[in-house]
Amino acid sequence: MNGNNKNEMHLFLIWNNAYYRLDKIIEDISNNFNILRKVEIKWSKVKFSENLTQFYGTKLSDNSFKEKHCGNGPFTVVIVDDYKPHYGPRKTSKGKMNVNMKMFDLKMKYRSITGGGHKIHATNYISETRHDLILLLGKTLEEIQNSLDEEKGSRSITRDIEGANGWNNLSHLFRILNNTTKYVILRNFESFDDNKLDDDIDILTSSPKELQFIIKAKKVHKNKRRSAYLIKINNQDVFIDIRYLNDGYYDENWQLDMLKKRCLSNNGYYILDLKDYFYSLLYHSIIHKPYFSSLYEKRLKNMLESSKLNSINIEQNNWGSILSEFLNENKYIVRIPKDYSVFFNYQHSFYYKKDYNAQIIRKIRSILIEIKKRVNEYS
Which one of 101, 104, 258, 298 has the fewest beta carbons within 10 angstroms of its own beta carbon? Predict the structure, then answer.
């Protein structure tokens, strides 16, 4: 994405309240790009605000200013081919960023001629194109490219955003996530079944709010520190824990490395690489549990026997020293989870970063639990 003159697919989205300049905008787009396809989309009125929330990744209520500003009638998506993309810095709503300058400048031009505001949306880089296409049309960028000869010209469709009524199965869910945001499954993916989930999903992401809105996750607890959510998969309620950078669940540098080194599994979702999976599970079993269970020990030993990690000699080292060596070698430290529902084993935490806010909250919570326990005993 640095102006290497390779063709790029992008899109403009003209909301209904900009339709009075629709023909002029499309004419100008055609003067600057090769228009590959025009699609008019109609969302259901009852789902419109939810669709906006999912698309923009920010909570919007019914009849929000955004909805009134954009208009909740049909809107038009214009998919274009930029045969000579050039990237450079522009001031965006997310700060100064390196974007496709031509796309960005035309977006601002069209916003200006439609009275200002955000009645025009356009993609700034390829990852945003992927995000928009999969949510709006349910198709990947590659699928759109491969179908250009079959589906030419303009057409109109009536469909809500992808996942508006829940997810058909795990494949459906992760197909969307793979094209919209960065994530990695932390553990227990071996037991995932495409249509039925007996365990919850533990997921790490660099963009927790975006992921939450994309998958339509409902918070289980009101407290903002709790990471438990519910989503619908195949009409089944499934628990999902959304972990994020600097939440204390693991060291933030380790979390960054986990996301950087993630692997796409044969089942179509991103999982930890083998080494991170082993050590994160070891960390979880020692730091996040009141005691090291035989179940985790058996599982870790099986991982050692069936993988390239057989250089680790558990017979000559205890589990704590193996974890300590790994953390020291990578300059990772033990952190106190901000989610106070996650157990933190002070006894086994040989060295951890002091987080006094998290410690105070945990102490208060322990006192309240003890008080509640005493009250129940005497009632």
Answer: 298
Q: Dihedrals φ, ψ of 62, to 5°?
A: -60, 140
Please state, as a whole number, how many other Cβ atoms lie within 10 Å of the Cβ of residue 299: 16
- Give 330-353 pLDDT, tens digit per residue: 999 888 898 988 988 888 765 666
**Torsional class of 331: left (φ above 0), alpha (ψ -120 to 50), beta (otherwise):** left
Which of 284, 9, 282, 242 minimizes the C-alpha distance to 125?
A: 9
Task: With both helix axes pointing from N to C terminus, report the angle between 48-56 and 126-137 in degrees, rounded to the nearest 10.
Answer: 160
Q: Find the helix or strand (DSSP H, E) in which 155 lies.
A: strand 154-158
Written as one string, the DSSP assignment of 120-145 is EEE-SSHHHHHHHHHHHHS--HHHHH
Give every CB contact of residue 294 below 8 A, 6+ residues apart in sequence: none
Determine the Cα–Cα distance for residues 344 and 205; give it in Å rounded to an integer: 21
pLDDT at residue 100, as a whole number: 97
The C-alpha R_g of the chain, in whole angstroms, comes to: 24
**Taking CA 346 as the corner, what is the angle to CA 341 and CA 349, rounded to the nearest 5 degrees?**
115
